[in-house]
């Protein structure tokens, strides 16, 4: 019967073969060195897995951010029409066109330092809007927007709906938090992975949402006020 040797716990001592009292020498020399190298290699591979996944997550969110910027800057209509809404208000407004709304709001939010918004008609009854790139809000600092907006005129021209949709990179970030939480639960990732992602979301993106929501509410009030004047 053949014998299978595993890496010994130390470089000295003996291995007992059974109750006959016979012993065999422990592994020495090249075989011990090979075992040590194999064990070290397995340890390094195990420790590198979380780093590799973190790198993939980082590359993924960077790619989504770039895609977001391209779709936002090119006024891609499907991007502005579809998504996860996190802001929605409706105002009464009779007989108005998308071009008129765009011109009206562009005058209320001039480019430059301030809560600047850009407005662009994407159809006869739709106006897309977003933050000015590299602009500053009225608190004096720049931020990465978490949502983009769409103003839709009802087919009968009696109401205007203002919606804010999550930017794609935020959706991807939330997915990464979920993945990190699952990996933490099954023990394949350190606990701090999910905590870092979650804390970053709470400390950065939630305050930005409230900053943007205040601007969106201002848009609602401007349209409501102009609508009351037009309907009078």
Number of domains: 1
Inertia-based shape: elongated
Helix content: 40-55%
Could you list the spans in which at least 5 consecutive residues all have pLDDT below 50?
A: 1-16, 24-28, 40-50, 136-141
What's the total number of strands? 7
- Strand ordering within the main sheet: 3-7-6-5-4
Largest sheet: 5 strands, antiparallel
How many helices? The count is: 5
Structural class: alpha+beta
- This entry's quaternary arrangement is single chain
Instruction: Tell me the fraction of residues in β-strands, as a range.
Output: 15-25%
What's the overall average pLDDT, rounded? 75
Taking the alpha carbons of the first and last residues, their distance comes to 101 Å
Order of helices and strands: EEHHEHEEEEHH
Radius of gyration: 30 Å
Word description of this protein:
This protein has one domain. Helix 1 packs antiparallel against helix 4 and helix 4 (168-185) runs antiparallel to helix 5. The strands form two sheets. A five-stranded antiparallel beta sheet has the order 3-7-6-5-4. The N and C termini lie far apart (101 Å). The protein is 52% helix and 18% strand. The protein has helices at residues 29-73, 77-81, 98-108, 168-185, 191-231, and strands at residues 14-16, 23-25, 85-92, 117-123, 126-131, 147-153, 159-166. The protein is of the alpha+beta class and 232 residues long.
Short structural summary:
The protein is of the alpha+beta class and 232 residues long.
Which tags fit this structure?
two-stranded antiparallel sheet; alpha+beta; 7 strands; 52% helix; disordered N terminus; 232 residues; 5-stranded antiparallel sheet; single chain
